[in-house]
Amino acid sequence: MRHFRRDSSPGWPPNSLPIDPAGKALGLEPGQLIRAQVFQNSVCNWRCWYCFVDFSLLNGDETRAEWVTADELVRLFREQPDPPRMIDLTGGQPDLTPEWVPWMMDALEEAGLQDSVYLWSDDNLSNDYFWQYLDAATQQRVAHYPKYGRVCCFKGYNAESFAFNTMASRDLFERQFDLMKRLMELGLDLYAYVTLTTPCAKRVIEDMSRFVDKLQHIDPNLPLRTIPLEIRPFTPVVPRLDDDKRRAIDLQQQAIARWRVELGERFTAEELGLKICDIPLLRRGGRHG
Question: Where are the domains of the chain?
Answer without folding.
Answer: 2-286
